[in-house]
């Protein structure tokens, strides 16, 4: 089958079209003919080898972390799906590879595609929507009346997180560039900080939750806008000991991860707030809950541009160069 893969880490030009064997289908797997997959910054970081220590993939590796498509085969123990079902999914971190014609995914990681969406729209959602859900619902447990700050409100995660936080009843602030302010307001943000003109850390105060998608200086400043007891959840900051335990890392890796985040955690503790690193995980039940919100009109995907499958490498470059105006870039196979 046709795929886009990497044969070595750290080479942007190393992403190439290639042929791969048909995926084996386990007893609990569904075989999906992929209609569309979206591009995420995670794909670029995997390509560059940023996660070699914690995600020891075997090369060559087919890239791609989320999909929408049609079930074309099921394992002997599959009970939730049948051939012909339209589905969407984020495969488990150990079974990525959605820049391909077909993929086998465990049934627990798959959900019925939102009925109101096209395949391209549905493919834009799994990774970013699960990230938003696991940050705001599962970890922060956002409640009505709380104040939530979403960084990069026009980005892939940001566009969904703004809508989800608003659905949860929060007062939502977001950062965005001048050109994207109206879009983010249209998604439901109560306040949009134009980061080109204002420093959010001098404008905001007393927030319960910050979802950080940028890391670095933005993460450090985010600690300052929290109320005592508040939390920063970051998908771009240094990994913390809780993530190391969740990953099942060995003692050396646990120590290294703890050291990476020690400075941030100490700064947070001095302010009476907490820092938490999030590495999103696959979850079909959460995708089902998100599909209900989509079909009820509570959340809508934001698709910036759609590329044909043969231009997957160009789609990766498009995202890497920051050319997307808002939301996600998608590649379509069908």
Automatic annotation (TrEMBL):
InterPro entries registered for this protein in UniProt: ADH-like_N (IPR013154), ER (IPR020843), GroES-like_sf (IPR011032), NAD(P)-bd_dom_sf (IPR036291), Quin_OxRdtase/zeta-crystal_CS (IPR002364), YIM1/Zinc_Alcohol_DH_Fams (IPR050700)
Keywords for this protein: Oxidoreductase
Domain Enoyl reductase (ER) span(s) in chain numbering: 10-331
A Pfam family that the UniProt record links to this protein: ADH_zinc_N_2
Molecular-function GO terms, alphabetical: oxidoreductase activity; zinc ion binding
Residues spanning the membrane: none
Name of the protein this chain belongs to: NADP-dependent oxidoreductase
Lineage: Bacteria, Bacillati, Actinomycetota, Actinomycetes, Kitasatosporales
